[in-house]
Design brief:
Blueprint: H1 20-23, E1 29-36, E2 41-47, E3 58-60, E4 67-69, H2 87-93, H3 97-116
Antiparallel strand pairs: 1-2, 1-4, 3-4
Function: Binds to RNA polymerase (RNAP), stimulating transcription from principal, but not alternative sigma factor promoters.
Keywords: Transcription, Transcription regulation
Protein name: RNA polymerase-binding protein RbpA
């Protein structure tokens, strides 16, 4: 028969004289609710003696990935999802040849000024 570890049979591993009160689980806490732009609520707990200015106004909401604020009536704005652009959309946004020549001339002028200094 193979046995491992040094735990006594019938005891919980890690149990000992320390209880929950020794870990701080019964410390006075306050619950703060946060709402994201979709209306999802997250409750975070902070120490009761923590000053109001140290409690964050905005947090990351774990379920939606959006920011969540403490004000339910005015939650943070939804993150703007940029639509996927195809290659043709980028081609349509390209500058005209005249603009490209002007940009190149400006860049070359700046380089020449830096080298001259």
């Amino acid at each position: 028969m193979a046995t491992g570890g040094n735990a006594i049979r019938g005891t919980r591993v890690g149990s000992g004289p320390m209880g929950e009160q020794d870990h701080g689980y019964h410390a006075d806490r306050i619950a703060v609710s946060y709402w994201d732009g979709l209306g999802n609520e997250t409750v975070r707990y902070f120490a009761a003696g923590l000053p109001e200015e140290e409690i964050p106004e905005i947090i990351d909401h774990p379920q939606s990935g959006l920011p969540a604020g403490r004000d339910k009536e005015n939650p943070p704005a939804l993150a703007k999802a940029e639509p996927y652009k195809t290659h043709l959309a980028y081609v349509k946004e390209r500058r005209t040849d005249e603009e490209a020549v002007q940009l190149l001339e400006d860049a070359l002028t700046q380089l020449r000024e830096r080298r001259g200094q």
